[in-house]
């Protein structure tokens, strides 16, 4: 007796163009598109925004110190990951190669670094889909920060390899680390809380 397992996942009805035309919620929630389905995450907590701000400041300072006027560091902007797979997300912080930063959405090929700050509210499916999407879009660098309740923040830094991301940095005890990035940047993980 044999069993068949389908790996086909039907795409939802919402296109990237539909997502772009939709209004983002006014309460700070984020509306993202994953495989054609709209996902709304609640407004970020203060600790999430604090960590995001620290990462933004560290990365923006490093980009400026490196004299990289071709890179823009932006918090919370839309990124079209895949039109065919109907996926568009809003990373917490991005570094993009773009001459014009005043846009509603950036293309995946412009994305050099994506930063995601996750808490217990982010589902495993959401996390896995975003990481796979960034890898499929060939985003060179990815940072993931976890903010577990009552514990220090963890920081993982990834660099894209031939078949996906490989972890280069893991910090869980308040270390200051040299994060994989298009520019040299130090991240003081103790200051993410």
Structure characteristics:
193 residues, 13 strands, single chain, tt1808, chain A, six-stranded mixed sheet
Q: How would you describe this structure to a colleague?
A:
The chain is α+β, with helices and mostly antiparallel strands. The protein has helices spanning 16-21, 46-65, 124-136; strands at 30-34, 37-41, 71-75, 78-82, 87-89, 93-97, 105-107, 111-118, 141-146, 154-160, 165-171, 176-178, 186-188. The chain has one domain (16-192): Alpha-Beta Complex (tt1808, chain A), CATH 3.90.1570. The mean pLDDT is 91.
Topology readout:
Elements: H1 16-21, E1 30-34, E2 37-41, H2 46-65, E3 71-75, E4 78-82, E5 87-89, E6 93-97, E7 105-107, E8 111-118, H3 124-136, E9 141-146, E10 154-160, E11 165-171, E12 176-178, E13 186-188
Parallel strand pairs: 4-7, 8-9
Antiparallel strand pairs: 1-2, 3-6, 4-5, 6-8, 9-10, 10-11, 12-13
In brief:
This protein has a six-stranded mixed beta sheet with strand order 3-6-8-9-10-11, with helices on both faces. Strands 5-4-7 form a three-stranded mixed beta sheet. The protein has three helices and 13 strands, in the order H-E-E-H-E-E-E-E-E-E-H-E-E-E-E-E. The protein is of the alpha+beta class and 193 residues long.
